[in-house]
Amino acid sequence: MRRSISMNTLGLIAVVIVTFLSTSALLAARDMVHREGDYVTVQSLRERVENSPIIIIGEVQAVGTTVNMARSAEDSTRADPYTFVVGQSYTVAVERYLKGGVPDQEQAPMMLNVLQPEGMLTGSGQPITPTEADIARAKSEYEHSPMQVGGRYMFFLYDLPEMGAHPAYVTGYGYPWRFTLPHTGMAVPESPATEANTAFPRLTSDELITQVQDLIESRQ
Hints:
By secondary structure, the chain is α+β, with helices and mostly antiparallel strands. It has helices spanning 7-19, 23-29, 45-50, 132-140, 194-198, 205-218, and strands at 34-36, 39-41, 54-68, 83-99, 111-122, 152-159, 169-171, 178-180, 186-189, 203-204.
């Protein structure tokens, strides 16, 4: 059974993630100051849309590798040697871009590596090279919702050019940053911030898509 990771650890994970966000992501994220206990949250669909440079509908194809989401303070293209934020990658086939794309590419990619933080390890001042067992332990101690292979979602994302991956790495910031999106039935926000999840109205998948499109068009 998962244990809730400490508030200090969650705070550090949030700081590490914000550190490597692109400039556009930082400009958007600075307005998201809501908190629910240990989590940075958004409080409305309008806020979620306005603070997300990339919004897609996509299906999870596979669970990918784990990477270190912590970045070096001296060079953001390199991983921090002393802290390992477990970034679980999920290969997502893009069904449709509702907003944005990935900068510096003429055509937005139709496959993305969506990163989700799922734990953290520190080396206590020493360089750390975690084993698979270390990563599994870190995941067991961090409250998160793994994405389901075959699951269809609406994602609210930022690009991570510093990570240098192809397909591009992207992630979300501020819970909830994804909704389950079955072809029929209800769209459901997925995040450990349960109170933030309940702030969103119950909508079918089609209703959520329509509302997001209307909010995007109203800002153009």
